[in-house]
Specification:
By secondary structure, this protein is α+β, with helices and mostly antiparallel strands. It has one domain. The protein has a 5-stranded mixed sheet, covered by helices on one side. It has a 3-stranded mixed sheet with strand order 6-8-9, with no helix packed on it. A two-stranded antiparallel sheet has the order 2-3. The mean pLDDT is about 85.
Length: about 140
């Protein structure tokens, strides 16, 4: 049975805090576009990094809070709170869309105004696909 879980995953991601370019001590909720369907044990998730919004990186594990050891307890609790309790091993078929002008750390340019941080640079549009399987974290395809 296919279930739209976009709202559930948007709420799950709402706790992520993004940095504010030019304001080293400020943060704000990360601004993602989220579309997600749960079909059995498979989550089909499209995560959009929006133009003009700032993010640290494009790594799925960072934004989805999926540790490399593959423990997905936080995600399962979010699904359970929405009345969903998949019993099988979860798989996320992830599509990351980066809009032209989304801002990411430029790791080649330290931020001169804030030690330990990097300057932001606008990205060109791109698409990244990954398959994440509960119990392990695969690199984007």
């Amino acid at each position: 049975m296919r279930v739209d879980i976009s709202g559930c995953l948007a709420a799950y991601l709402a706790g992520n805090r993004g940095l504010v370019p030019g304001a080293p001590d400020a943060s704000r909720p990360a601004d993602y576009g989220v579309s997600a369907i749960l079909d059995g044990g498979v989550i089909r998730l499209t995560l959009t990094f929006r133009a003009g919004s700032a993010y640290c990186c494009r790594q799925p594990g960072c934004h989805l809070d999926i540790p490399e050891d593959g423990r997905w307890g936080r995600l399962r609790r979010a699904l359970s709170a929405d009345g969903l309790a998949p019993t099988s091993r979860l798989t996320i078929r992830l599509t990351i869309l980066v809009e032209d002008g989304a801002l990411f750390f430029d790791f080649s340019r330290p931020d001169p105004g804030c030690r330990g941080r990097y300057a932001f640079a606008p990205a060109t549009g791109s698409k990244i696909e990954a398959v994440l399987v509960e119990g392990r974290l695969d690199e984007p395809e």
